[in-house]
Automatic annotation (TrEMBL):
Protein's name according to its UniProt entry: SNX10 protein
Main location: cytoplasm
GO annotation terms (biological process): cilium assembly; intracellular protein transport; vesicle organization
Transmembrane regions listed in the UniProt entry: none
Positions with biased composition (Basic and acidic residues): 151-163
Membrane topology: Peripheral membrane protein
CDD domains according to UniProt: PX_SNX10 (cd06898)
GO molecular function: phosphatidylinositol phosphate binding
Keywords: Cytoplasm, Endosome, Lipid-binding, Membrane, Protein transport, Transport
InterPro entries the UniProt entry points to: PX_dom, PX_dom_sf, SNX10/11
Organism of origin: Dicaeum eximium
Length: 194
């Protein structure tokens, strides 16, 4: 049976310049769905990018009522852990609902959002064919760019072999198929249940 586990976690304050800061969140995906190019990935996204994603998905799926994002409040305080966690929970619920809809899962922007660090402008260019790389190429090259050092790869394999009897072989020639080593994501208890 197919599953998609999504976790929005690890909020961090990022400085844009000396006057502006924002919070971004790690999006961790673990799946066995054939819809996804990579079975495990993590990227960091900010609230503004979620707003962009929702607008694009809504414009492509006019008949579907998309779930709401947590509201953008003028009183949001990034130094208040309760505000940040409330937003994090809302973003996770948004993605969980989106990922249950087959029509939305067919949107390339969603996959680029979840499995690459491309900007919204670059995602649009990729989806509209204005780049030299395809959506799948972008996702796979992001994975290969974000692999850890070989020593960590070996330690990860040892731990994986002890804990996981289901292993996949890689026919892509890009190295090990254990995508959890790709971007320094923390191992997730949820990802080990399957």
């Amino acid at each position: 049976q197919e599953f998609v586990t999504v976790l929005v976690r690890d909020p961090r304050i990022q400085k844009e310049d000396s006057w502006h800061s924002y919070v971004d969140y790690e999006i961790f995906i673990h799946t066995n769905s054939i819809c996804f190019t990579r079975k495990t990935s993590c990227v960091r996204r900010r609230y503004r990018e979620f707003v962009w994603l929702r607008q694009r998905l809504q414009s492509n799926a006019v008949l579907i009522q998309l779930p709401e994002l947590p509201s953008k409040t003028p009183f949001f305080n990034m130094n208040n852990p309760n505000h940040v966690d409330h937003r994090r929970q809302g973003l996770q619920e948004f993605l969980e609902k989106i990922l249950q809809d087959a029509l939305l899962l067919s949107d390339s922007r969603l996959h680029l959002f979840l499995q690459t660090q491309l900007s919204p402008e670059d995602m649009e260019a990729c989806v509209s064919g204005q780049t030299k790389y395809s959506v799948a190429d972008a996702i796979l090259s992001f994975a290969s760019l974000n692999r850890r050092f070989p020593v960590e790869d070996e330690e990860s394999k040892k731990g994986k072999n002890d804990a996981d009897s289901d292993s996949e072989s890689s026919s892509s020639g890009l190295g090990p198929s254990d995508d959890s080593i790709s971007c320094g994501c923390k191992a997730s208890p949820a990802s080990e249940e399957s």
